[in-house]
Amino acid sequence: MSSLLGITREGDEHYILNLTENFKARMVNWFGSLEERIVSMIKTGTSVALIGPHGSGKSVVARYIAARLVGEYYAVIDLGVDVATFDSMLEILHEVSNALGFYDPLGITFYDSPLLPRSEPAMQWMTKCRYVIDRAMYLATRDIPTLLVLPYDLLRYSRCREAVERSMRIVDISEYLRYVDLRRVLEEVFLSHSAALGCRKTLGQFVEYVMEKHSDLSGVVALAAYGGRHYARRGCAQSKPEDLYEEALRSLAKLYYDLYSEVFFPTCQAARALATPLWLSLEGQQLPTDLAYPLANVDSIARRIALLSKLGPQDAGVKEEVLEELKELYTPREELAPAVKWAVAPKESIIKESLRLTARENPCLLSPDNPARLIRTVYKGLLVIDSQTIFEFAKVIASLSLGRSEFCTNKIGKYVCKDGQVPPVVVDALGMAQGKRITQEVSIPSITRCDEEGVELLAGLALLDARRAPAKCVEKFVQLFYSASRSDIELFYKFYQDYLEIAAERGTLPVLRKLAVAHLSRTPPREAVTVLEKVFHAALGAEDYKTAEIASVALVAADLTSAKRILPNCDCPILKVSVAYHIARSAYESGDYQEAIRYLELALAELKAQDPRYEYTPQFVKQIEELYRDLALLTVL
């Protein structure tokens, strides 16, 4: 008689059971090649770690393999049990011809109901995984392979990751999921769970909806299972896929929240430490790990910065002590290391949705009101600890403005970059918060010359308030802004808005022309409105209608409402026609046809006046007439 050995427990006592009968439920072998590969490895004595996304069917496959091996006279040894029970299981191994070690900290275990995930075995894995690995290695000395089942996160942030990768063959279920008929698999899962509750119908749209929402394959099997249950509880009535999905997600989200809170933030202190990087990660912004550590201490950092600002020369001893305390707050805490690395990492889609839905229920895991402000406080602390850091930050700001990121390999990169990229929230922290760049938080000697070029020029300007910059510096800045056509104009506004505004106020006509053209060649952000209005009015006052026209067209792209306000009331027909036409085109593209016609009629009225001072090109007149004809037709229809 084939036998499957397992463990059950009552209170603190564990017992060995024969669980063969529990595995007579119908199991469909969806992953033929995956199953054959794992079974062949096990039969040759190779230990296997089956990994993959959460809720992707790893435990189902592992259970199927275990049930199959039972038929070939294998015993299954649960590596997660206590020492006494493990030893007693080893004593009876002589009763079977072969055996298999098994450990699945989240899914279906041999002493548990088939609900997932279970936080207790997962916590055991994260804190005592060495025991599991040691047992697997011991079994290997007796020619007993182990099948270990782990989701990505419990492997990536485990202290035993290297040991697993070194001693086991890694098999990723997602590599197989992409080549099976996943739609059929999920439909069978859905139907089997709904049928168990008396429902004989299926809902194909639900499976389609799940596959669209989770292209990374995370949660698809689990969602199909929960979807089938909720479908049956709805009386098998036709339901919107999104409504059924919401119910299935809520059921699953609570389980995943319990798992992750237990594994990574079991205490209020740990939750507070992870709050900022975790919420940013859920929104797709991954912070550098070295930045996430001091974020846990941001309040303490702010207090010490404030205290240092109040200390005078006579408080040198106290200042030294506070500085040492401040440095200590930037030292990574070993006990938080796995949790911080998880918090700043990209998340599977099912974990993103689950935590967004449930994490707000934790009063200690509050979403930060202004994460950029918190990050800026951490940066200010770095400036206080080492004043030379200001020059590194200046180089970062200059490089980012020109679309470069070579600084990511430098010392400062570990506080700024994640995988070679700078998260938007970090850009906000470095930029013009309350009118100041981060490099203006610490006073340094003023720079009065601008002999450098490129990055070096911008780095020097980043240290100086534009109001104190010589005219030569402002002119060179505008020239650089004008020539850096590939750079993101929004970054210039985040880092150098004061220089752009000063250039618009003080610039000569050639400077204003370059400033206007630079905006026209790129898509200006909403922050450009003030600068473009200043350029327009300055050029209009100097009767430089060409520059005024360029500025007005750029302003239409930045903010249509502001562009309407500047429609000139002057003896300048060509400028009026151009401004009115571009406002009309923008209104047309946004679907406001009546407004577009009104401004086109202003342009046509100026054209009909036929001012002898101006001659409009036939192409320009044709553009206006064709737009008016299209609008007239749309209005009639």
TrEMBL record:
<dbReference type="InterPro" id="IPR027417">
    <property type="entry name" value="P-loop_NTPase"/>
</dbReference>
<dbReference type="InterPro" id="IPR011990">
    <property type="entry name" value="TPR-like_helical_dom_sf"/>
</dbReference>
<protein>
    <recommendedName>
        <fullName>Tetratricopeptide repeat protein</fullName>
    </recommendedName>
</protein>
